[in-house]
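Lab notebook, design round three. We kept the backbone fixed and only want residue identities now. Task for the bench partner: fill in a sequence for the structure below.
Input structure tokens:
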């Protein structure tokens, strides 16, 4: 059986990644061939925010130390991870759709040759408006986030923008 494809959804906060993923999830709801990764994040669950598995810093570090993540990263003062069980889904031919940081692309592309990077973006003023509407960050934090240079993509990375 051929391995499934790992669809890596990337882009700045506020670009609409979760909205896109939710739309694809709805369209593929009847297909057992697609798995939508639920990230583990060191942030409490919030109504209207991304459906994730909340974890304390200690829980996250323990899970990471026990090799429970396929990949993990830190960004904006939080820890993020994708559970290792997704590797089994890929090995069994299921396609995995995951919202990840551009910072972990090289690692994932090297380990999972059947992949596609899907980049979602929006104009800076739209990103700023969406981030402000969320109410999770100060205006200074939003400005810093928007000023951050986007990570470069690994050489030869297959991507759709």
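Proposed sequence:
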């Amino acid at each position: 059986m051929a391995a499934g494809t790992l669809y890596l959804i990337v882009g700045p906060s506020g670009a609409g990644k979760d909205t896109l993923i939710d739309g694809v999830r709805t369209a593929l709801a009847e297909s057992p061939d697609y798995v939508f990764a639920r990230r583990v994040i060191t942030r409490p669950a919030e109504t209207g925010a991304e459906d994730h598995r909340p974890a304390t810093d200690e829980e996250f570090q323990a899970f990471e130390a026990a090799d429970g993540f396929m990949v993990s990263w830190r960004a904006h003062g939080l820890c993020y991870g994708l559970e290792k069980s997704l590797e089994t889904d890929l090995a069994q031919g299921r396609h995995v759709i995951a919202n990840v940081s551009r910072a972990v692309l090289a690692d994932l592309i090297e380990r999972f040759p059947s992949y596609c990077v899907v980049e979602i973006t929006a104009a800076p003023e739209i990103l700023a408006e969406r981030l402000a509407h969320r109410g999770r960050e100060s205006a200074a934090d939003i400005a810093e986030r928007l000023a951050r240079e986007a990570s470069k993509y690994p050489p030869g990375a297959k991507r759709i923008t």
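Keep this in mind before ordering anything: The mean pLDDT is 89.
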